[in-house]
Amino acid sequence: METVIEQVPLDKVIDPSLKKKAKIEVKDVKVWYDDFNAIKGIDMNIKPNTVTAFIGPSGCGKSTFLRLFNRMNDYVEGFRMEGKIKINGENIYKKKVNVEELRKEIGMVFQKPNPFPKSIFDNVAYGLKIQGITDKQLIEERVIDCLKQVALWDEVKDDLKKSGMTLSGGQQQRLCIARTLAVQPSIILMDEPTSALDPISTAKVEELIFKLKEKYTIIIVTHNMQQASRISDYTAFFYLGELIEYGKTKTIFTNPEKQQTENYITGRFG
Amino acid sequence: MNNIQKNRLKDQLFKVWGIGCTLFALILLVFFIGDILIDGIMRIDWGFIINLPSRKPEKAGIYTALMGSICILFLTTIIAFPIGVAAGIYLEEYSKKNRLSAILEINISNLAGVPSIIYGLLGLEVFVRIMGLGASVLAGSLTLSLLILPIIIVATREAIKAVPKSIKDASYALGASKWQTIWNQVLPASSGGILTGVILALSRAVGETAPLIVVGALAYVPFAPESPMDEFSVLPIQIFNWISRPQHGFIENAAAAIIILLLITFVMNGVAVYFRNKWQKKLK
Question: What is the ipTM of this complex?
Answer without folding.
Answer: 0.87
